């Protein structure tokens, strides 16, 4: 028997949004529409695109977390998507969980 790593499944945006909706704590159920979540996930992609194409260390990712949350809160407000607090944006945790569930663990 081999310990070969299983190939990741393709990323599915709709499945990701459903996963995140299910992941949200009870007090945030209904707070984010599917379109809101897609917008927030796009912000994550945009944020990391501005950081360049590089592999970040765990420490670098941790340092970027606060900056990313600020970016998401600010842009959602400015774009009229919603007034969210950093604590409400557990979307990031749901996205990480989804990615891990399909085999992306980095």
Please describe what this structure looks like.
- The protein is an all-alpha fold and 106 residues long.
- It is built from 4 helices and no strands.
- It is globular, with a radius of gyration of 15 Å.
- The model has no long low-confidence stretch (mean pLDDT 87).
Largest sheet: none
3D shape: globular
What is the terminal-to-terminal distance?
24 Å
Fraction of residues in H or I helices? 55-70%
- Rounded to an integer, what's the Rg over CA atoms? 15 Å
Briefly say what this structure is:
By secondary structure, this protein is an all-alpha fold. About 55% of the residues lie in helices and about 0% in strands. It has helices spanning about 15-25, 35-50, 60-80, 90-100.
Question: What's the topology here?
Answer:
Layout: H1 13-23, H2 34-50, H3 58-78, H4 91-101
Descriptive labels:
106 residues, mainly alpha, 57% helix, 0% strand, globular
